[in-house]
Description:
The structure holds 2 protein chains of 2 kinds.
Chain A: H1 2-13, H2 23-40, H3 45-57, H4 86-96, H5 100-112, H6 116-120, H7 124-130, H8 133-144, H9 149-156, H10 163-173, H11 178-190, H12 192-203, H13 206-209, H14 221-238, H15 243-258, H16 262-269, H17 271-286, H18 290-293, H19 296-324, H20 345-357, H21 364-389
Helix pairs in contact in A: 2-3, 3-17, 4-17, 5-10, 5-15, 5-16, 5-17, 7-19, 7-21, 8-9, 8-19, 9-10, 10-11, 10-21, 11-19, 12-19, 12-20, 14-15, 15-16, 16-17, 20-21
Chain B: E1 2-5, E2 10-15, E3 22-23, E4 28-34, E5 37-42, E6 47-52, E7 59-60, E8 65-69
Antiparallel strand pairs in B: 1-8, 2-4, 2-7, 3-6, 4-5, 6-8
Amino acid sequence: MSDFISRLEIVVSQTGFMNLVWEQPVMWVVGLVFVYLGIKKNVEPLLLVPIGFVAVLVNLPLAPLMVDDLGQVVDLVTGHHSEPGLLWYFFHYGFEKGEIVPCLIFLGLGAMTDFGPLLSNPKTLLLGAAAQVGVYSAMFGALLIGFTPQEAAAIGIIGGADGPTTIYVTMQLAPHLLGATALAAYSYMALVPIVQPPVIRALTTEEERGRIMKQTRKVTKAERIVFPIATAMVVILLVPPAAPLIGLLMLGNLFRESGVVERLSDAAQNSLMNIVTIFLGLGVGATMDGTKFLQPKVIGIYVLGLFAFIISTGGGVLFAKFFNLFLKNKINPVIGAAGVSAVPMAARVAHVVGQQANRRNYLLMHAMGPNVAGVIGTIIAAGLFIAMLK
Amino acid sequence: MADVVAPMVGKVIEILVGEGDEVEENQEVVMLEAMKMEMPVVAEGAGKVTAIKVKEGQSVEADDVLVIIG
Lengths: 390, 70
């Protein structure tokens, strides 16, 4: 009988209720807010719904989900070490080892992206590079307030507003920050239409925003095929650590432009992308263990990420205005803001801001040039950080 | 006499005027879609629609004539 009672006590002591710490209910609320934002406000639902739900799961005490392969949970009755948790496998193989998940997302993005606007107006490459200024300034800001150089680099990359690149850099340099930086990057991608327009308006006149740009030239099929191959080779020769990201981005783009592997292009954009998005939600949500996630650092990451994003937007606009001093066919400075790599949200924002100033102004395709250049710019910045700091 | 042309590559999702309609300057005549974004194309001047050159669902290139306003 006493044996039975002591076993009952063990069972009771092993319920979740008896093992709660305060951070866990806080994270339930955080996770449920994500789910709410995804469902009711349509904020990045493909990411926030799974991430939010998984964040709740990993904050239920003793649930064997994120136990790592060192087997930290010990069975109180038998003394046996437990097997690694289910979500740990997704995190470990999807993110820690080789970072397959962010790289496969780039394969799909490459298949979705039309680099034509960049090819027809290569000058816009410089706008995509200029908008990376926020990445570097946020990195210095983070260094100043006491983050390590590796953490600062992962935070700075948020300014590129590029989810998979942020995940990649964070895993390479500061894996303990993954949940926070990934969420900040995806939040700011969702907030592009709210954050960017006031910054653009503050730095331009109505006349500048209404400026209609000359139609760009047509791009040949040969150019479209040579571009991904040449870009991958040049970028990797310059910045070898960028190879996984740029390599898969450009392979995806070659699928698209070659015209002969429609099935692969379709798979990369749709079925594979959907599967990998689920893995992303599982892996990122799994890192949101309240005892690790809820630190003052997380607030710093959000604030610096926003700072990075605003500076990148402003930097792109101001560089476009500077660039105009030397151009005969002036560009509309609004498209400079599209140099952040949130594709195609930033280009859409530039288009809308341009139309508000002049109804006959159609900036969408012009803005896609700096927008896709921004993706390449952020990858190069990521490669440089990894080369310098790893 | 003014042609309304496509400002960019895209797909015609709706034609908002009919032949013979009187249109005003800046009136929306065609709804285009590019990159999942709808955008109205407006008439550059007032006049009467004399011909519609595209069908709903048709893909157009930049500078293709959409509607002729006489």
